[in-house]
Amino acid sequence: MGMDVRVGDVLRMKKEHPCGGSEFDVLRVGMDFKIRCRTCGRELMLPRVKVEKRIKAILREESPT
């Protein structure tokens, strides 16, 4: 079973992007993830398995219910 990653989450990765940023916004979730670097704005499409291995933390704003 995969991790609970949703569109709108912010992922803190173990390895930095070449620009130096380590936080990414989640734009699309499925067999592939589309993520955007919060530092330089570059968008990446990566396989789910690869992204889940690299996640250090999932930052999510909890909505009041």
Q: Stretches where pLDDT falls below 50 for ≥5 residues?
A: none
The major beta sheet can be summarized as:
5 strands, antiparallel
Mean pLDDT: 91
Helix/strand-derived class?
A: mainly beta
**Relative helix content:** 10-25%
Roughly how many Å apart are the termini?
27 Å
Quote the beta fraction.
35-45%
The number of distinct β-strands equals 5
Q: Calculate Rg over CA atoms.
A: 11 Å
Tally of distinct domains = 1
Q: How are the strands of the largest sheet arranged?
A: 4-3-2-1-5
Tally of DSSP helical segments: 1
Order of helices and strands: EEEEHE
Anisotropy-based shape: globular
Structure description:
There is one protein chain. With 65 residues, this protein is mainly beta. It has one domain (10-59). It is built from 1 helix and 5 strands. It has one helix at 48-54; strands at 10-13, 23-28, 32-37, 43-47, 55-59. It has a 5-stranded antiparallel beta sheet with strand order 4-3-2-1-5. β3 (32-37) and β4 (43-47) form a beta hairpin. The radius of gyration is 11 Å and the shape is globular. The N and C termini lie far apart (27 Å).
List the helices and strands and how they pair.
Elements: E1 10-13, E2 23-28, E3 32-37, E4 43-47, H1 48-54, E5 55-59
Antiparallel strand pairs: 1-2, 1-5, 2-3, 3-4
Name some characteristics of this structure:
mainly beta, 65 residues, five-stranded antiparallel sheet
Task: Write a brief structural summary.
The protein has one helix spanning 48-54; strands at 10-13, 23-28, 32-37, 43-47, 55-59. With 65 residues, it is mainly β. The chain has one domain.
